[in-house]
Automatic annotation (TrEMBL):
This is Aquaporin. The keyword Transmembrane helix applies. Belongs to the MIP/aquaporin (TC 1.A.8) family. Pfam families: MIP.
Length: 268
């Protein structure tokens, strides 16, 4: 035990059930929760609706263009709602923020519910207004499984591992840019995240559809009723988020105490 202490590992987790309740007055807290819900709902809607619009026949033969466009949609979503909710738009990212001590259990659940509903709404809008009236003139093909994530491998376990590794990369980035002793970290998150998404889309796309986001997979699956291998897109990202976030927190995150006004101080 003394050897572990000498390593200065950070097991000082700041997990709470509903910390925000002790920080904000009841009226302000209610409004804050509504803000987070609406922001995450709209952010995930934007991701699914406009992101899926990058996957059509217009970009056939040019996967780099598709990956670049998808990454830029993430950039825009973060730019729009980042100042409000930090733009998780991904349940695995919310899990990571929880491990790092930035959200409580209750608020984390609000995040995830908003993300799932936003993904469903975004795909409904895509099918209702995109496939017939908007996509076809640009060469898109109508299909019942458009933008539904699938795996292109005989072993779902391989796809699960790749989804986990891809999500782990994102959560390592969260640990870096959200480091409490790195106050300017959040200012660069939109660029860093969008660049990472471009890389993951290009490398994982042919095998797992490069979801690395359970909500992005959930919306199209619910609307179309196609859940084949859907567990891959939940288990992989969540495990990736857990392993990477715990690893970063224990080995790399400095020990700090969180103050009610949002600032931090070095722990003893």
């Amino acid at each position: 035990m003394s050897a572990i202490k000498k390593l200065n590992l950070n097991f000082n987790f700041h997990w709470t059930f509903f910390r925000e309740r002790n920080v904000l007055p009841k009226k302000d807290l209610s409004f804050r929760i509504v803000q987070i819900f609406v922001a995450e709902f709209l952010g995930t809607l934007i991701l699914v609706f406009w992101g899926c619009n990058t996957l059509g026949q217009i970009n056939s033969g040019e996967p780099v263009v598709t990956c670049w466009l998808w990454g830029n949609m993430v950039f825009l979503a973060i730019t729009i709602i980042g100042p409000i909710s930090n733009c998780h738009i991904n349940p695995a990212v919310t899990v990571s923020f929880f491990i790092y001590g930035y959200v409580s259990v209750v608020v984390g659940i609000v995040y995830i519910i908003a993300q799932l509903l936003g993904a469903i709404a975004g795909y409904i809008l895509l099918m209702a207004f995109g496939t017939d009236d908007f996509l076809d003139p640009f060469g898109y093909e109508r299909s019942d499984d458009f933008c539904v994530n699938k795996i292109n491998t005989d072993t779902p376990f391989r796809a699960m591992v790749l989804e986990g590794v891809g999500t782990a990369l994102l959560c390592f980035l969260i640990g870096r840019v959200c480091n409490p002793l790195n106050p300017k970290g959040l200012t660069s998150i939109s660029f860093i995240f969008s660049f990472a998404i471009m890389i993951l889309a290009f490398t994982l796309g042919p095998i797992t559809s490069a979801s690395v986001n359970p909500a992005r997979s959930f919306g199209p699956a619910v609307v179309t009723g196609q859940f084949k291998d859907h567990w891959v897109f939940w288990v992989g990202p969540i495990l990736g988020a857990l392993v990477s976030s715990f690893t970063y927190h224990i080995f790399f995150l400095p020990k700090v105490n969180y103050i009610d006004d949002g600032t931090v101080e070095a722990a003893d």
